[in-house]
Each structure stands twice: as structure tokens, then as C-alpha cells.
Amino acid sequence: MDTFFFTKLKYKLYYFMFLLSERKKEQKETNRVAERFLTYNNYTVFSKLKGKKVKKVLILLPHCIQNYSCPFKITSDIENCKKCGQCVIGDFLNIKSQYPVEVKIATGGTLARKHIKDTKPDLVMAVACKRDLISGIYDAFPVKIIGVFNEIPGEPCVNTTVSINKIYEYLQKIF
Ligand code: SF4
Question: Mind telling me which Pfam families this protein's record contains (predicted)?
Fold first, then answer.
């Protein structure tokens, strides 16, 4: 069977299983299907990248990763961040100075698609909660997206965060 269609079929199956398994779950609850889908997706994307030179990566972040009380408007430009250490946006500014990456805040699927269209990256790295990330990866297929779940220490959609070590680990694999 053609690899493209086999992969597409697998994405469809995973997504269907995810929707079924997610029905009675809270946003904060882990979902094993989502984790397995993400592992499969990231493995598939990294396999496709083998031997290829990646020149530009677009990192998409959810708005809830910014500290809720921060007065600086980073949705239009993350350079407005003052690196106060209250959230990980400052870490992404450091990453931006170390790697050929664009970092954008995507407040929804439409804006995410616009950032991809404007930036024309070789690869997207998306940070989001399980529902947004899984549906985003599924909808965007075959666009290559490396996904990273955000962490939700309190209530969903407020003051979320992400493992910066994981972001560096992936960037070192890419470049
Ligand atoms: S690190 Fe940047 S975005 Fe986060 S709270 Fe501080 S100034 Fe605001």
C-alpha cells in the first residue's frame, strides 16, 4: 500500500479513536490515545526529515502560555516580552536568538494557518493542549508538524507552560 495513504489512514484511525476516548474526559486528564497519536506523528515527521536540511522552523505557541497578569502584548510580536521570568515566553526569545526559528502565538486554527502561510517554514513545531494539538495535526496533514503538549498546572487555558528541555531536545534533533 502507498505509504502516503497508509499514513493518512492511520491518522484518521487515531483521530477517530481520540474523539471517542476524549468524550468523557476533562481537559486536564491525560489521554493515552492522544499520547500515542503524538508519538506516532512525531516519529513519522522525524523519519521524513532524515537527510534533509531544515532551514526554517515555525514555533506556534498558545496564548495561555503567557502569564495571565502580564501587561505586555505578545500576540502580535513576542519581542514585546521583557523576559521577567514569570512565564516561558522569555525562554522562547532565547531560542529565537540561537536557532533559525520564528516564534508566533496562535490564538486559534485560523491564525495558525495564516502564520504557516506567511512564514512558509520547512517544519512547524506546535505547542498546545491535547485537543487543539491533536485536531491541529490531523487537520493540517500532510503539513509536517512536531507536536509538544503544554502542561496545565492550574485551571485549563490559564498560565499553562511547556517543557523547555523538550523543545531544545527536538531542536537539536532538527538542526
Ligand atoms: S516572561 Fe515575558 S511574557 Fe512572560 S510574564 Fe514576563 S514579560 Fe510577560
Answer: DUF116 (PF01976)
